């Protein structure tokens, strides 16, 4: 939203990403390419793989010094640095911590009498630990943990979905692309130029994530397939006339 309004006001905007590319932690390169093209088309200068050394200025910020020695003059500096889970109470209670409060697949902490759910808790997932920072994820996990506290004994299967408004485009993500070994892309609906399309991620021939830019239909169908545990033939994705046929 901030970038959108700044550009609408005619301000010059430079986006700095210290990682090799944007969206490196949450999406494959194909999704990043769609978003990058969108920002460039709106006049944003995008610098990837360049960290910030320090912010210059005395009474107020007047520029940004990059790790490669470049200095960018600036009237306003906005930093997106993320958040960390609040684990102080859990640490005081002696609970195991690992990317938040570590739980088993059912939400039980290292103390079998204590349970945890939501953005502060991590669960085992694909050989690592997963902590979702989303409204839907927190609700799903809380419902599962509540059931387990009453004796259900079922593992939490995260139903990850996210969205982000980028200028006049909407990015929607269903599933988690971490660990994918195959990516298939599909053009988006007409009317959005190059700023539409979907990216389908598979792992061992199983559909694990769909990223859609200005393509709500691809997002909804992909989400339904993932939640149903169904995986279409990747070869069908780019050319099938109607994605809805994948549900039949």
UniProtKB/TrEMBL annotation:
<dbReference type="InterPro" id="IPR028202">
    <property type="entry name" value="Reductase_C"/>
</dbReference>
<feature type="domain" description="Reductase C-terminal">
    <location>
        <begin position="161"/>
        <end position="237"/>
    </location>
</feature>
<dbReference type="GO" id="GO:0005737">
    <property type="term" value="C:cytoplasm"/>
</dbReference>
<keyword id="KW-0560">Oxidoreductase</keyword>
<protein>
    <submittedName>
        <fullName>Pyridine nucleotide-disulfide oxidoreductase</fullName>
    </submittedName>
</protein>
<dbReference type="Pfam" id="PF14759">
    <property type="entry name" value="Reductase_C"/>
</dbReference>
<dbReference type="InterPro" id="IPR036188">
    <property type="entry name" value="FAD/NAD-bd_sf"/>
</dbReference>
<dbReference type="InterPro" id="IPR050446">
    <property type="entry name" value="FAD-oxidoreductase/Apoptosis"/>
</dbReference>
<dbReference type="InterPro" id="IPR016156">
    <property type="entry name" value="FAD/NAD-linked_Rdtase_dimer_sf"/>
</dbReference>
<dbReference type="GO" id="GO:0016651">
    <property type="term" value="F:oxidoreductase activity, acting on NAD(P)H"/>
</dbReference>
<feature type="domain" description="FAD/NAD(P)-binding">
    <location>
        <begin position="5"/>
        <end position="140"/>
    </location>
</feature>
<dbReference type="InterPro" id="IPR023753">
    <property type="entry name" value="FAD/NAD-binding_dom"/>
</dbReference>
<keyword id="KW-0274">FAD</keyword>
<dbReference type="Pfam" id="PF07992">
    <property type="entry name" value="Pyr_redox_2"/>
</dbReference>
<keyword id="KW-0285">Flavoprotein</keyword>
């Amino acid at each position: 939203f901030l970038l959108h309004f700044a550009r609408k006001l005619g301000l010059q905007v430079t986006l700095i990403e210290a990682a090799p590319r944007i969206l490196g932690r949450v999406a494959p390169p194909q999704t990043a390419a769609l978003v990058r093209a969108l920002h460039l088309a709106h006049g944003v200068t995008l610098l990837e793989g360049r960290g910030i050394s320090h912010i210059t200025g005395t009474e107020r910020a007047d520029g940004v010094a990059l790790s490669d020695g470049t200095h960018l003059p600036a009237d306003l500096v906005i930093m997106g640095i993320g958040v960390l889970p609040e684990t102080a109470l859990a640490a005081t209670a002696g609970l195991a911590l690992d990317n938040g409060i570590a739980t088993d697949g059912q939400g039980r902490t290292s103390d079998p009498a204590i349970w945890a759910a939501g953005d502060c808790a991590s669960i085992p997932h694909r050989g690592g630990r997963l902590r979702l920072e989303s409204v839907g994820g927190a609700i799903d996990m809380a419902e599962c943990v509540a059931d387990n506290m009453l004796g259900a004994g079922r593992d939490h299967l995260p139903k990850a979905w996210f969205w982000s408004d980028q200028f006049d485009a909407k990015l929607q993500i269903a599933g988690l692309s971490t660990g994918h070994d195959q990516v298939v892309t599909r053009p988006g609906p007409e009317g959005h130029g190059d700023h539409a399309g979907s990216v389908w991620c598979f792992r061992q021939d199983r559909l694990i994530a769909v990223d859609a830019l200005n393509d709500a239909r691809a997002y909804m169908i992909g989400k339904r397939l993932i939640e149903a545990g169904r995986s279409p033939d990747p070869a069908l994705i780019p050319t099938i006339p109607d994605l809805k046929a994948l549900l039949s």
